[in-house]
Amino acid sequence: MPTLYTAEVASIGDGRNGEVRSSDGILRLPLRSPKEVGGPGEAANPELLFAAGYAACFHSALRLAARESKTTLTDDTVTARVSLNRDDSGYHLGAEIVVSLPGLDRETAEALAAAAHGRCPYSKAVRGNVQVRVGVAVS
Predict the structure, then answer these.
(1) Ramachandran region of residue 129, left (φ > 0), alpha (ψ -120 to 50) or beta?
(2) pTM listed for this prediction
(3) Is the distance from CB of 40 to CB of 30 less than 8 angstroms?
(4) Which terminus of the chain, N or C, has less C-beta within 10 A?
(5) Both 128 and 75 in a single domain?
(6) Degrees, nearest 5: CA angle 56-97-103
(7) Tens digit of pLDDT for each residue in 90-116?
(8) CA distance 29 to 41
(9) How many domains does the chain have?
(10) Mind listing the pLDDT tens digit for each residue in 39-76?
Protein backbone atom coordinates (compact mmCIF):
# COMPACT_ATOMS: atom_id res chain seq x y z
CA MET A 1 0.00 0.00 0.00
CA PRO A 2 1.56 3.33 -1.01
CA THR A 3 1.97 5.98 1.67
CA LEU A 4 0.18 9.21 0.73
CA TYR A 5 1.19 11.35 3.69
CA THR A 6 3.04 10.98 6.98
CA ALA A 7 2.56 13.36 9.88
CA GLU A 8 5.52 13.63 12.23
CA VAL A 9 5.02 15.00 15.73
CA ALA A 10 7.48 14.87 18.62
CA SER A 11 6.55 14.88 22.30
CA ILE A 12 8.99 16.99 24.30
CA GLY A 13 9.23 17.22 28.06
CA ASP A 14 7.09 15.05 30.29
CA GLY A 15 4.52 13.48 27.92
CA ARG A 16 1.18 14.65 29.30
CA ASN A 17 2.86 17.70 30.83
CA GLY A 18 5.15 18.71 28.04
CA GLU A 19 4.72 19.90 24.49
CA VAL A 20 4.07 18.47 21.04
CA ARG A 21 5.68 19.87 17.91
CA SER A 22 5.21 18.85 14.30
CA SER A 23 8.23 18.56 12.05
CA ASP A 24 6.67 21.07 9.61
CA GLY A 25 6.22 23.71 12.35
CA ILE A 26 2.43 23.90 11.94
CA LEU A 27 1.65 22.32 15.30
CA ARG A 28 3.25 23.45 18.53
CA LEU A 29 1.07 22.92 21.58
CA PRO A 30 1.67 22.73 25.29
CA LEU A 31 0.20 19.64 26.96
CA ARG A 32 -1.19 19.36 30.46
CA SER A 33 -3.05 16.56 32.16
CA PRO A 34 -6.73 17.39 32.57
CA LYS A 35 -7.97 18.52 35.98
CA GLU A 36 -10.19 15.43 36.08
CA VAL A 37 -7.11 13.22 36.46
CA GLY A 38 -5.24 15.50 38.85
CA GLY A 39 -3.46 17.74 36.38
CA PRO A 40 -3.57 21.50 36.01
CA GLY A 41 -5.66 21.45 32.83
CA GLU A 42 -5.65 24.66 30.78
CA ALA A 43 -3.88 23.11 27.79
CA ALA A 44 -4.34 20.38 25.23
CA ASN A 45 -4.03 16.71 26.19
CA PRO A 46 -3.73 13.49 24.17
CA GLU A 47 -7.46 12.71 24.40
CA LEU A 48 -8.38 16.19 23.16
CA LEU A 49 -6.00 15.87 20.22
CA PHE A 50 -7.32 12.40 19.39
CA ALA A 51 -10.92 13.67 19.51
CA ALA A 52 -10.05 16.54 17.16
CA GLY A 53 -8.44 14.23 14.64
CA TYR A 54 -11.22 11.64 14.91
CA ALA A 55 -13.98 14.25 14.42
CA ALA A 56 -12.30 15.74 11.35
CA CYS A 57 -11.49 12.36 9.80
CA PHE A 58 -14.99 10.98 10.44
CA HIS A 59 -16.52 14.16 8.98
CA SER A 60 -14.49 13.71 5.82
CA ALA A 61 -15.64 10.07 5.53
CA LEU A 62 -19.24 11.19 6.14
CA ARG A 63 -19.00 13.78 3.36
CA LEU A 64 -17.61 11.13 0.99
CA ALA A 65 -20.43 8.71 1.86
CA ALA A 66 -22.97 11.49 1.22
CA ARG A 67 -21.46 12.34 -2.17
CA GLU A 68 -21.47 8.68 -3.18
CA SER A 69 -25.13 8.31 -2.21
CA LYS A 70 -25.99 11.62 -3.89
CA THR A 71 -27.21 13.05 -0.58
CA THR A 72 -26.86 16.78 -0.01
CA LEU A 73 -25.64 17.75 3.45
CA THR A 74 -26.26 21.17 4.95
CA ASP A 75 -24.94 22.43 8.30
CA ASP A 76 -23.65 18.95 9.17
CA THR A 77 -21.30 18.53 12.11
CA VAL A 78 -19.42 15.67 13.71
CA THR A 79 -18.58 15.75 17.40
CA ALA A 80 -16.12 13.27 18.88
CA ARG A 81 -15.89 12.59 22.60
CA VAL A 82 -12.84 10.63 23.66
CA SER A 83 -12.73 9.40 27.22
CA LEU A 84 -9.84 8.13 29.30
CA ASN A 85 -11.01 5.12 31.30
CA ARG A 86 -9.26 2.97 33.86
CA ASP A 87 -9.81 -0.56 35.11
CA ASP A 88 -7.69 -3.19 36.86
CA SER A 89 -5.58 -3.69 33.74
CA GLY A 90 -4.77 0.00 33.26
CA TYR A 91 -5.92 2.89 31.10
CA HIS A 92 -8.16 2.56 28.04
CA LEU A 93 -9.81 4.92 25.59
CA GLY A 94 -13.49 5.09 24.75
CA ALA A 95 -15.08 7.15 22.01
CA GLU A 96 -18.45 8.49 21.03
CA ILE A 97 -19.16 10.05 17.66
CA VAL A 98 -22.28 12.18 17.27
CA VAL A 99 -23.25 13.08 13.72
CA SER A 100 -25.66 16.00 13.30
CA LEU A 101 -27.45 15.94 9.95
CA PRO A 102 -30.21 18.57 9.90
CA GLY A 103 -32.88 18.03 7.29
CA LEU A 104 -32.29 14.30 6.82
CA ASP A 105 -34.55 11.50 7.96
CA ARG A 106 -33.18 9.20 10.65
CA GLU A 107 -32.79 6.18 8.33
CA THR A 108 -30.66 8.12 5.83
CA ALA A 109 -28.63 9.75 8.60
CA GLU A 110 -27.92 6.39 10.26
CA ALA A 111 -26.93 4.84 6.94
CA LEU A 112 -24.49 7.66 6.22
CA ALA A 113 -23.02 7.47 9.74
CA ALA A 114 -22.57 3.69 9.40
CA ALA A 115 -20.89 4.11 6.01
CA ALA A 116 -18.56 6.77 7.45
CA HIS A 117 -17.70 4.54 10.42
CA GLY A 118 -16.88 1.72 8.01
CA ARG A 119 -14.42 3.78 6.01
CA CYS A 120 -12.96 6.36 8.43
CA PRO A 121 -9.26 5.58 9.00
CA TYR A 122 -9.57 6.43 12.72
CA SER A 123 -12.52 4.04 13.09
CA LYS A 124 -10.54 1.36 11.29
CA ALA A 125 -7.50 1.99 13.50
CA VAL A 126 -9.38 1.52 16.78
CA ARG A 127 -11.83 -1.21 15.66
CA GLY A 128 -11.71 -4.15 18.02
CA ASN A 129 -9.67 -2.26 20.60
CA VAL A 130 -11.64 0.86 21.56
CA GLN A 131 -15.35 0.88 22.28
CA VAL A 132 -16.86 3.41 19.86
CA ARG A 133 -20.50 4.47 19.89
CA VAL A 134 -21.88 6.28 16.86
CA GLY A 135 -25.10 8.24 17.12
CA VAL A 136 -27.02 10.62 14.91
CA ALA A 137 -29.02 13.76 15.57
CA VAL A 138 -31.53 14.93 12.98
CA SER A 139 -33.96 17.82 12.97
Answers:
(1) alpha
(2) 0.94
(3) no
(4) N
(5) yes
(6) 85
(7) 999 999 999 999 999 999 999 999 999
(8) 13
(9) 2
(10) 999 999 999 999 999 999 999 999 999 999 999 999 99
